[in-house]
């Protein structure tokens, strides 16, 4: 489909699953994020610091041959959404139990 970004994600291609951990959402909350001015292009963009993300989700950060870091935004964003959805469900269950 034109304009769609997709990658092989079939579970049969994956092993050794490791949970993102209980502190993942808290780590996201302190991730350096915002708008910034690119020093190489002079263009203002929005994003996160690869160095701050690498501290707790190193699989979403890659280094080129010069050591410049890049973020796999799609991978990181989807993992964050799933973990946040899990947290919402946990909190909703706690609220229901208090009633």
What keywords describe this structure?
99 residues; two-stranded antiparallel sheet; 3 helices; globular
**Which value, in Å, is the CA radius of gyration?**
17 Å
Structural class: alpha+beta
The unreliable regions are none
Question: What's the end-to-end separation, in Å?
Answer: 47 Å
Order of helices and strands: HEEHEEH
Specify the biggest β-sheet: 2 strands, antiparallel
Number of strands: 4
Give the spatial strand order of the biggest sheet.
1-2
Describe the overall structure.
- It is a single chain.
- With 99 residues, the protein is α+β, with helices and mostly antiparallel strands.
- It has one domain (21-98).
- 37% of the residues lie in helices and 16% in strands.
- It contains 3 helices and 4 strands, in the order αββαββα.
- It has helices at residues 24-29, 50-54, 73-98; strands at 33-37, 44-48, 61-63, 69-71.
- A hairpin with a 5-residue loop joins β3 (61-63) and β4 (69-71).
- The mean pLDDT is 92.
């Amino acid at each position: 489909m034109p304009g769609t970004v997709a990658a092989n994600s079939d579970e049969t291609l994956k092993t050794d699953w490791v949970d993102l951990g209980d502190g993942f959402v808290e780590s996201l909350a302190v991730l350096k994020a915002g708008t910034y001015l690119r020093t190489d292009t002079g263009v203002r963009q929005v994003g996160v610091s690869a160095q701050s993300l690498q501290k707790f989700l190193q699989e979403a950060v890659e280094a080129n041959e010069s050591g410049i870091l890049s973020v796999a935004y799609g991978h990181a964003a989807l993992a964050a959404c799933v973990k946040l959805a899990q947290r919402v469900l946990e909190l909703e269950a706690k609220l229901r139990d208090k009633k």
